[in-house]
Write the structure tokens for this entry.
Amino acid sequence: MLVKICKALILTLAVISSIANAKESRIGPRLQPGVPRIIDGVAVTGQWDGRWACSMQDKWYGDYHMCGCNIIDNRTVLTAGHCAPQGWPEDIELYCGEKILSEATLTSKVTNIIRHKGYSSETLNNDVALLKLQTALKFDENTNMKPVVLPENPDVCGDGELCYVYGWGVTSEGGFSAAPNLMKTDVKIVSDSECQASYAAAGIIVNPECMICAANPGKDSCQGDSGGPLICRTNVLCGTVSWGIGCARPEYPGVYAEVANFLDWIKICDGDKCMVPTGCETCC
Ligand SMILES: *[C@@H]1O[C@H](CO)[C@@H](O)[C@H](O)[C@H]1NC(C)=O
């Protein structure tokens, strides 16, 4: 019981410290089923669309959608660092291959949580974590799952690129319940300098080595979408939902962990072992 109380405290403190810094991580509040998500999105219905998206839930808090994550390979998903509490991997459950959460059955439990060593809850630098799965995923016609494509070619994630962000998160700023259906909305990649300038006005630092920004008037990711995919062109994972000030406010783009800058880290963490390479303690 005591460890569980500590767990609640740790999670609460992580959220408070990011708010103190005015960066609002887009982790799910205690989401309730019933309402749609993503700001100004549409439900994902195509059979082949969104097949790399999973819902991450923490059994200890009940069956609540907490964060999104992305299938990397049959034993690995990528989520946000701020979604990955340290310890208690046995409490984390993943639901993959089903867009309607109420119809999803448990896909796998988690055996190991590997949060980036350079993750900071204050700056939200290196906001990435890998979860290792207990049950290997199968990628065939029956499972509705497949891995994302990693951005080996950084041009795919270039300024102005039209991309889609996916999630079961809230559909309005301050909203409080999870979308029953996976939602998506279109956003465009914003240049590092433009994004830095937008947040500099609020005294907040955007680190271009770790972060990539995307925006579109009236459209955005929001709370509950954390860790989920920013997909460009054909299934390329350019970002994972990280933070913003509010959601879809015209002056503030959504900020994502920049997957292209973590490719070496993801590869080194391939398999069950994860060694942190020298120089990877801060942004990769
Ligand atoms: C998982 O992927 C690995 C590497 O691609 C492969 O060797 C293995 O057979 C796969 N496991 C299952 C259960 O599909």
